[in-house]
Design goal:
The chain has about 260 residues and is mainly α. It has a single domain, classed as MetI-like (MetI-like fold). About 75% of the residues lie in helices and about 0% in strands. It is built from twelve helices and no strands. The longest helix is centred in the first third of the chain and has 34 residues. The radius of gyration is 23 Å and the shape is globular. The chain starts with a helix and ends in a 5-residue tail after the last helix.
């Protein structure tokens, strides 16, 4: 009976991981297809389509745009989220529960609704569709996430350290930059990496708020409109590779435990 349970557990694990990773494996496999159609049988391996992607100026420009928007919007979101969390955790504000709920409210709203609302707002304000508009949209959707992560890690044990720094004569800005920020660095970096991951492959808001200069997900959608193309598989594989690199860096910098 125990052997049957063990076999069933292994089969269940294989089914779960196969369901998760099989699409990625197929994507990477057919990105190495030598022919012009990403369909069986597999003919390869070949780097033909990776070379085509890297020589396509529209795709490379979209890749640079995605990286720039992801990094800058994540930095802005984590900065605003940290300052908001610090304010709520260290000061008594009227209706703080309601205000915290309003900050995290975008987490429960569809990106389509947020994007349409921002599109109307920017048209009214005279801000044209651009990477700047898309970056602002990414800050809107990632700020609540950063706030929730950082606020959850602001405990009372940090107050004593900050109070000791003030007693020694440190001004408030030094306490914030030299005490609070280093103590909260793991949560800050976690919020930044998660925001960058979400911004890196976000499509709906980027599609609604950009026009000529677009991000990589929008360019991938433009490729898919023309049908199956091995170039889309190569682009998707590159996006997956960048995501893996971010996860590995996150593991090495934040989750690695130093020996006692």
């Amino acid at each position: 009976m125990r052997r049957i349970v063990r076999i069933a557990a292994w089969l269940y694990a294989l089914a779960v991981y196969g369901f998760i990773f099989l699409p990625v494996i197929v994507l990477v496999l057919f990105s190495l297809q030598a022919t012009s159609f990403p369909i069986p049988p597999f003919t390869g391996p070949s780097l033909r389509w990776y070379q085509a992607v890297l020589s396509d100026t529209r795709l490379t420009s979209a890749l640079v745009n995605s990286l720039a928007v992801a990094i800058l919007s994540s930095a802005a979101a984590v900065t605003l989220g940290f300052l908001s969390a610090w304010g709520f955790a260290r000061f008594t504000l009227p209706s703080s529960t309601l205000l915290r709920g309003l900050i995290t409210l975008p987490l429960t709203v569809s990106y389509l609704i947020i994007g349409m609302g921002l599109l109307v707002l920017f048209n009214w304000a005279g801000l044209p569709k651009s990477l700047l508009a898309a970056g602002i949209g990414h800050v809107v959707i990632n700020l609540p996430l950063c706030f929730a992560i950082i606020y959850s890690q602001m405990g009372d044990h940090q107050i004593n350290i900050e109070r000791a720094a003030r007693d020694l004569g440190a001004p408030e800005w030094k306490v914030l930059l030299l005490i609070t920020v280093p103590v909260m660095a793991p949560a800050i970096f976690a919020g930044f990496f998660l925001s960058m991951t979400f911004s890196w492959d976000e499509f709906v808001i980027s599609f609604l708020l950009t026009r000529f200069d677009t991000t990589l997900p929008v360019e991938i959608w433009n490729l898919l409109r023309s049908g199956l193309n091995p170039k889309t598989n190569a682009v998707g594989s590159l996006v997956f590779a960048v995501s893996i690199v971010l996860v590995v860096l996150f593991e090495l910098t934040l989750l690695r435990r130093t020996p006692a």
